[in-house]
Amino acid sequence: AVSLLQKEGFDPNNPDSYGFSTALTVYDSLGHAHHVDFFFVKADRDDNLGNGIQNFNFWKWIAFVDGNFDSAVSSGGILFNENGEIERLYDSNGNLVTDENGRPSTSFTLTIPPSMLTNGMPPNLPPNPNYAPSSPITMTLSFAGSTQLAQPSMIYNATQNGYASSQLVEISFEKDGTLVGHYDNGQRIELYKIPLADMPEDTLKRLSDNLWAFSPKVPLNNDPYSLIKMDFAGSSGLGEVVGGALEMSNVDLTQEFVDLIVAQRAFQANTKVITTDDEILQTVINLKR
What we know:
Blueprint: E1 20-27, E2 33-42, E3 58-65, E4 74-80, E5 86-90, E6 107-112, E7 137-142, E8 168-173, E9 178-183, E10 188-193, E11 195-198, E12 204-208, E13 211-214, E14 229-232, H1 253-288
Antiparallel strand pairs: 1-2, 2-3, 3-4, 4-5, 6-7, 8-9, 9-10, 11-14, 12-13
């Protein structure tokens, strides 16, 4: 076995004892932020690594959480080939890290137990006795793309998919009917997808406001729901969902103006009939006199 957790002369507080360091913010199951420091130490020629590992292509890494440099969370090793490309990973016991098919992997799973978590960011603060995460932090470290070249060490791209607890601040709709929640931590999560319904004309009758029921024209011996075609917006000839907008009136204004003129003329004609009838009645009364 290869001892990777301990490195003689290594001191997190002494930059001369390691080659490179970086930090990452992670979040536990309750949304608390924690600070994880990673230190990378180049293997010396006299290090007894065993397992045929070549010292000059090997780096040890050690991780600490929340500024507690007295106890490492985990450690491991990275072996590069002669072209400076990552070749293999080793765990803290010096065992080769493999994938589910038994092949060398460039990803390593790191678990931080609740007992090692304090009060999170920033580091070096006294532990909070009221802090009690519900479960360990389990994260997968991917070293894919890492290289060992003749240039200063640096991080070109580091991403993580954890985030702090937050509040829903607004919602929006996509064209396909997806309801999206926007949170105050910058996250955007798809919450629900609203389906649309299409059915033959006269299938429904309006009761009141937005309440509808199946029309009496639908045969009772048939399942009325079989007449409804359900799918999502943009599929099966259905339209799109427009969020934050009000539908304009779908009334044909030209036809409505024509109908208004016709009704006005009919009213005028009816009024003329009443006027004429009144004049005839008045004439009859005058004749009697």
